[in-house]
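In this supplementary section we document a worked example of the pipeline. Step one takes a protein sequence of length 618 as its only input; no multiple sequence alignment statistics are reported here. Step two produces a three-dimensional model, which step three serialises into structure tokens for compact storage. The input and output of this example are shown verbatim.
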Amino acid sequence: MNNALAAPKTAVRQEPKDLYAAASKLTAIIEDADVEEFISVIEKLDDQTDPWVIFNSQVSSRGSLLHIAAERRQDNILRLLLDHVADHRIASKNDWGDTPLHMAAKAGACGAAGMLIRQAKDKNQILRMKNKRGNTALHEAVLIRNVEMACLLWKEDSEPMYLENAERKSPLYLALDTGNSEILQELFSSSLEPSSIQGLSPVHGAVVRGQYDLLSKIHAMNMKLFAMTDSGGGNLFHFAAHTNRIQVFKLLEQGAEYLANDRDNKGDLPIHIASKMGHVHLIEKLLPVSGLLNRQGQTILHVAAKYGRSSAVKYMLKHPNLGKLINKRDHDGNTPSHLAAMHSHPATLILLVLDERRDQFCLNHELLTALDIALDGIKRDCTLRKVLAVMVLGSEPYVSKDLLVLRPEARDEAFIELGKKKPNRDHVKDVNNTHLLVATLVATVTFAAGFAVPGGFNSSDMASEDDRGMATMLDNRKFQAFTICNTIAMLCSMTAVVNLMWAQQKDVNVAIAANQQTKLLLKIAFPAMFAAFLTGVTLTVGKHPWLANTMFYLGIIFLLIFSGAKLLEYPPFFKSHHRPIRFLKHWLVLAHIVLWGVETNILDDMEEDSVTVTRFRD
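The serialised model returned by step three reads:
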């Protein structure tokens, strides 16, 4: 072999085609033959081909002969090559960035890996080198689930265990997907330093994969890993609170209580995350060992109100200690009511407003009440959620007398705003035309219904002279109710039509006044027409009581929902503070929230309440 390597060195020129042909032949020999045949082929090379050049060059996209020998587990050929290549070739890379050690790790060739490591001048260098996927040889060994190879590599150098690849995964994190208990045991039983682990946290990965048995083992072997945080600064209890993994919180009873008081980058404790997500059963788990304030001075009630988690707010208000937080202020002076108003959560506001401990006069550092914040939100962007929030807060029975002292500028705000407003003539005209069209349709329908009453008229010769031409159901109370409701709807709509027609002039202020006057008329006409239809249809199917009752009660429910909320906008009703009316308004607001999907959180909370007991037992 030495003679074969020494003889061609006197050759004048190396032809590329000859080198390529020889390299291809040697590659085929490495894949299918033994070292004797490999040596025999080298000895038969012509004088114009230098084996030294072949050994120290990349023969294909797969790399050099070292790469191929390591990949094919040809330890004898690899040993021969290592004796006749330059030292730097051990760290050479192929087109995918793999070194010969990477190839050995992928093939599970422990003998080849050992030789490469021993031959390298700087073994740590090749052990820490990454390919184009960011993987070290240890990454590749873990990916193929080879325990022997993984142990060989990390015992030579433990640093690669901490290194992340292009997917931000360390070998520790990759081991979670192997399902190989031996690899997990070997890697996690070593003395790991959590602060050195790069990329994704393996304990977070175990939580998201539901590997709770592994978490228990990590807890027993190296509980320091539990202090690892994700990119948001949250530990595994922050993450478990967000994803609702109640099984993780069993570890709180095993010496990990201190982690319940770690803050993430936003300053939140795990209990604040549970409150943000509305997980009441997790709040109960964390409450005995956790603080209550985040970095913004907000309690868990603040957080639940801010994100509209009604189930969590309801639980806290009923709790003997947490309920006392209802008037607690954060660093900006905001109470839970301020935050619920700021983020427009009417369902949550109902719970807070109905609590007698709530002080509706609480001012934040900008000297604003919760109602002030809700009203300001409507000025900036008038949405249904914000309107419902104002309705809820506007039902409170008193006005603070101190506000005029604290905020003198509020005395003139109404006049200033009034002076700023410049009515848009075209907009007012469009609105009035729409109302005129609707009022005309209602008047037409109700006028026709007045002469096409249910049951018809007496026109038979058998009827008495006094009854002839009269309605056949004149003595029926439901018919009388139909007539009254239909007449009210027709008269209100006709009045609205006349009023709007009169307003069709150039004076925009007259048009605005007409618009305001006809709003109440139409709000009365619509429910009256609805009631007339309901009583008329119920009357015609009265032969079947079950059908008549079903239609009647179904209609009553929808009548309350659709007309009640509009009635709330009528100022005398809106400002009424009588307790029955307040409850009616709150009920109507909740009906609108559920029907129109105003708050998705409340729907989630309803589902959460129904399964809380089951989850807690699990």
